[in-house]
Write a structure and sequence with these properties.
- By secondary structure, this protein is an alpha/beta fold.
- It has 3 domains: 2-193, ANL, N-terminal domain (Rossmann fold, 3-Layer(aba) Sandwich); 237-410, Rossmann fold (3-Layer(aba) Sandwich); 418-489, GMP Synthetase, Chain A, domain 3, CATH 3.30.300.
- The protein is 27% helix and 27% strand.
- Helix 1 (2-14) packs across helix 6 (215-228) and helix 2 (29-46) packs across helix 3 (62-73).
- The radius of gyration is 22 Å and the shape is globular.
- The model is unreliable at 111-129 and 371-375 (pLDDT under 50).
């Protein structure tokens, strides 16, 4: 009940003050509590039990916040899901973490025939349970459907701090979905880290355009802001002009985003500077540099604050003054890191690249993930016996103790804050009978931001196959952000 207890505390402190803003919808803290209590009673009547996991396949809408808090009241754990999650990925998740409930918009999460093409899934189809609900009902007053699946009751945690408070989904090195459990102790530590690093208070107004179903959006929006009693402004349109308007209209004081968003904001042809408030722009993966950074500072009066955040570790570092450029800043108090040579396993010298390991109270215990291999061979994304998690990031720490991100140990890349395994894209393309080999790459377009580009070798080089054929095939088998934006045909790789 951790998230719900924070809601109750905010109601006592702020009452009729605004808690949630979405377009023309305004909810006070007391009004939010009323809706949460009503929805919790409805979910309990549908069959959700203490300890159950429930998927929320929703975007940045008030129902996401209301349902997350309602599940918290029932001692259930929300599992936020991208609304574009494919049936194949849902089946793989169900094999790893059986969901008791799944709340979606109409037709969302329906089982459909999966085309027998693309990369072979990591979990055999015969071993994956079919998502066949025992009941499905419409939530009152909404277009949302709640499906209930037959699952065994989960055992209670030994203590309240070890109770699963949320399960967030990321991708493993093969591109398959990886559920990451976050305990109540993890969320409490993450709230303390973020509120201390950013100075979040009940007077803040945070604009959430980054997806709440991502760990970054969930931690900043649901964890940090709810813990502090700050007002949440939800936005599901990420166009820079729309974001700039909401910044002005609601005097936003905290805006989490990525470098692409802040670069787009800096390039707006004309916009009135928000002079009433000082906004903290939290930039995932690093800040801005050069002329773009200067233009952003002149227009908005502040620099984006680079930060490092992962699903397994929570927030690791924040550039509190926004003066470190592409650096992600200094490691937060209470978080331990070490940078090791991937070959020798020994600590690297200052300024030298190495593999990042993180330990701290916000690091997930990873009880729902595959167990680590025995001995010293700890897979990327797993923990060793001492609690150190191998993130898979290649970083360097300078003499000022600032952390700079460089690359990955595997082929995982980030596109708008989401992990994409290039090997998964390559496997999907190579599943086509007319393809001999494929290579996926990440490029950074000055206007379009990061995107996947595929180089393809065809068996028949007569030119009969068009790029659109390969892109359409990927669109049917991959999430939209994983689909190559461009296909280049070549004679060899």
């Amino acid at each position: 009940m951790l998230l719900y207890s924070w809601l109750e505390r905010a109601v006592k402190a702020k009452g009729t003050a605004r808690a949630l803003i979405y377009r023309d919808t305004y909810l006070s803290w007391r009004g939010l509590l009323h809706r949460v209590d009503r929805r919790a009673g409805e979910l309990a009547a549908l069959g959700l039990r203490s300890g159950d996991l429930a998927g929320l396949m929703l975007g940045n809408v008030p129902d996401f916040v209301i349902l997350s808090l309602a599940l918290s009241k029932l001692d259930c754990a929300p599992l936020p899901l991208d609304p574009t999650t494919s049936t194949r990925e849902l089946e793989m998740l169900q094999a790893l973490v059986p969901l008791r409930g799944l709340i979606t918009r109409p037709r969302g999460g329906d089982v459909a025939a999966v085309a027998a093409a693309g990369g072979a899934p990591a979990v055999a189809r015969a071993a994956r349970p079919k998502l066949t609900p025992e009941s499905r009902k419409r939530l009152q007053g909404t277009l949302l459907s709640c499906s209930i699946y037959p699952t065994e009751p989960r055992a209670a945690a030994p203590c309240a701090d070890e109770q699963i408070a949320a399960v967030l989904v990321t991708s493993d090195s093969a591109g398959d979905p990886k559920p990451v459990e976050r305990t109540a102790a993890n969320l409490r530590a993450e709230a303390a880290h973020l509120t201390a690093a950013l100075g979040v208070t009940e007077e803040d107004r945070a604009l959430l355009s980054v997806p709440l179903f991502s760990s970054f959006g969930f931690d900043v929006g649901m964890v940090a802001c709810l813990h502090a009693g700050a007002t949440l402004c939800l936005e599901d349109e990420v166009g820079p002009a729309r974001i700039a308007k909401v910044l002005r209209d609601h005097n936003v004081t905290l805006l989490p985003g990525n470098q692409t968003l802040f670069s787009d904001l800096a390039r707006l042809p004309a916009t009135r500077v928000n002079g009433k408030t000082v906004t903290r722009f939290l930039s995932l993966g690093g800040g801005l540099t050069g002329a773009v950074a200067a233009g952003f500072l002149q227009r908005y009066g502040a620099r984006p604050l680079g930060c490092m955040h992962t699903t397994e570790t929570g927030t690791v570092a924040v550039d509190g003054k926004g003066q470190a450029g592409e650096s992600v800043g200094k490691v937060l108090d209470g978080v331990e890191i070490r940078v090791l040579d991937p070959t020798t396993g020994k600590a690297t010298a200052s300024g030298r690249q190495g593999a990042l390991w993180v330990r701290g109270p916000a690091v997930s215990p990873l009880a729902l993930a595959a167990p680590a291999l025995p001995g010293d061979n700890v897979p990327i994304g797993s923990r060793d016996s001492e609690g150190w998690l191998r993130t898979g990031d290649l970083v360097a720490i300078d003499r000022s103790k600032r952390v700079t991100l460089f690359a990955r140990e595997d082929d995982l890349v980030r596109i708008d804050g989401k992990r994409v395994a290039l090997g998964e894209v390559e496997g999907c393309i190579e599943g086509l009978s007319m393809v001999t080999a494929a290579q996926a790459q990440l490029i950074r377009d000055p206007l379009g931001g990061p995107m996947v580009v595929a180089r393809v070798v065809l068996k028949d080089r007569s030119g009969a196959v068009e790029a659109e054929t390969i892109i359409d095939h990927c669109a049917r088998n991959l999430a939209p952000y994983k689909v190559p934006r461009r296909v280049e045909f070549c004679d060899s790789l």
